[in-house]
């Protein structure tokens, strides 16, 4: 399993959403804050791909 399979960067989020990378970093910061409040460890500048999909698309699994 590669890191790219688990985490997303601001560049990836920017491409998916059509938003700027600066705004993508704000999204990452907010999502990581939510994860930290739930007791999870986070990586600065990256966000869990699964959590991103759950929060953006409203589903735990996107097909």
Q: Layout of SSEs?
A:
Layout: H1 3-6, E1 7-9, H2 10-17, H3 21-37, E2 46-48, H4 49-57
Antiparallel strand pairs: 1-2
Helix pairs in contact: 2-3
Short characterization:
60% of the residues lie in helices and 10% in strands. It has 63 residues and is mainly alpha-helical.
Descriptive report:
With 63 residues, the chain is mainly alpha-helical. It has one domain (3-57). The chain has 4 helices and 2 strands. The chain has helices at 3-6, 10-17, 21-37, 49-57, and strands at 7-9, 46-48. A two-stranded antiparallel sheet has the order 1-2. Helix 2 (10-17) packs across helix 3. The radius of gyration is 11 Å and the shape is globular. 14% of the residues are buried.
Strand order of the largest sheet: 1-2
Give the mean pLDDT.
89
How many domain regions? 1
Rg, Cα atoms, Å: 11 Å
Helix content: 55-70%
The SSE order reads HEHHEH
- From the spread of the alpha carbons, the general shape counts as globular
Largest β-sheet summary:
2 strands, antiparallel
Number of strands: 2
Report how far the terminal alpha carbons are from each other.
Answer: 19 Å
Count the helices. How many?
Answer: 4
Beta fraction: 5-15%
